[in-house]
Amino acid sequence: MNHLLKSYPRFWLKSTNAHGVHSPFVYDWVTRCLYDKKDYAAYRLIKAYHKAMRSNHHAIEVKDFGAGSRVFSPNKKRKVSAIAKQAGSTLKRSQLLYRICRYFDIKQAVELGTSLGLGSIGMAANSGTQVHSFEACQATAKLAQNQMQKMQRNNWQLHLGLFKDTLKQVPDKIDLAFIDGHHDEQATYAYFCTLLAHKHNDSVFIIDDIYWSAGMQRAWERIKKHPEVRVSIDCFYWGLVFFRAEQAREEFSIRM
């Protein structure tokens, strides 16, 4: 948490909004997707999902297989409502995931780290996106699976188990990867490299919590400098990378 708080002022000083972006590709994404203020019908589904999790006060036993939580003690019972409020994607970011899937016409998406499915619903709210969500904690994954079934999200598929065992189930070609599990430098970079085998020229990879710790920031710096990455966008809470061979190699810091 201290690293996160210390990092934000530095990010703010170097970041910009759409007016400081000179790449047409990035400018269009910022103005037509990131800063899109339309009230989409799909938002009602996303809001209903978030409300269901935030109003669930049952306690479940959560097993942490990654770097753990900033708020909760490891491997203890936690209220679902508390997890929904303190961990996972916020409503705003779930809605942004929907807009990204819509804007880039994402057909195949992979999510590493389902948790309660608060990020999953953002992607699955776009009916044209097939979402493959990977999670190691059975308790949270089952909650997400049950809620997805209630909301008839047939375009969402759960892959339950340790990432080292389940990542072989990743589709051959993916349009979007949302890496939101195991917040550790080496693991995050390793998952990024594993998923590279499944990307194509127009894929987008999103790395969650890039300032979560010094290690996660180092992972983000390594990812940005990977030779296959052409464009990187630092949004503080997320880092996005693109592989477009026709694009000049550039780095951006943009406020969400």
UniProtKB/TrEMBL annotation:
InterPro entries referenced in this protein's UniProt entry, alphabetically = SAM-dependent_MTases_sf (IPR029063)
Zinc found in the keyword field:
no
User: Which GO BP terms, alphabetically?
Assistant: methylation
Instruction: Specify the superkingdom.
Output: Bacteria
Q: GO MF terms on file?
A: methyltransferase activity
Keywords for the protein's UniProt record, in alphabetical order: Methyltransferase, Transferase
Q: Top-level EC class, please?
A: transferase
E.C. no: 2.1.1.-
Protein name per its UniProtKB record: O-methyltransferase
Q: Which organism is it from?
A: Mesonia sediminis
> Lineage in the entry?
Bacteria, Pseudomonadati, Bacteroidota, Flavobacteriia, Flavobacteriales
